[in-house]
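Q: Could you fold this chain for me?
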Amino acid sequence: MKKKKKIKISRFEKFLYVITIFLAILSPLIIVFEKSTLSKVNYEVEKIKQQIKTQEKENESLEMKINELASLENIQKVIEEEGLEYNNDNIKNID
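A: Sure. Below is the predicted structure, expressed as structure tokens.
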């Protein structure tokens, strides 16, 4: 019977094996973590976009309210209610 030779593994080779195994296990974990972080960020972006749309609609509504309140008809109505008189000669246009 022949004796089997023992293969000696140097410390450097052991170190390389450990590092390779460590990276093989750690790489998928890092990828999953990064994808979950990206997903969370995308969710936050969509949430903020929705808030922006809601705020834009509110701004448009308020602009329409301002235009309605600033209309000549509304101004004349307020003038009449307050007992004032509308005199076109007193209006000065600034260019």
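A (continued): The mean pLDDT is 89.
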